[in-house]
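Working notes for the structural subgroup meeting. M.R. asked for a predicted model of this chain before we commit to crystallization trials. I am recording the input and output together here so anyone reviewing the notebook later can reproduce the run.

Input as submitted:
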Amino acid sequence: MVRGDSEEGGLFAEIRQALLNVESDLPVTAIVPLNAEYEEGLSREVLLARLTGAFGFLSLGLAALGIYGLLSFMVTRRTAEIGIRVAVGARPADLYRLVLRQTVNILMAGILPGLVLTQAMSFVARNLLYGASAMSFGPVLTAAGVLVAVGFAASLLPAVRAARIEPIHALRAD
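Returned structure, recorded in token form:
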């Protein structure tokens, strides 16, 4: 390894000349900066991190699509009930709360077992991996918070659709 203050091109020429002065038959094939070697050594890890991030975003999108589909189905199935609620005086805010309450139930049904299983698997990882420390709740709670935010965003359209149900159309549909 050589440390220098001059430009890479000039430094490379000086290194090549110094090596040839020491041993004239020495084949000098490549002189590579240390940061290039470092980046090349990390290329596999960078690829894995990018793939993991891409699959994470894909799974988040699938979760949002699933929550939206389930809530949309629930609103469609309960159209008559929602129409009756509107007919007896339910305000749009009440209907928003109804759909958001269902969203909270769905999210808690997934997040709570996920937290328990994450804790259990962190115990297994600590025993299998050298140097693995106790689970940090910061990233886990951040992931749960992102899932809650995405879940609420996915529930907005079904909630708006429930609030716009006309009682007369809902009762005639059945």
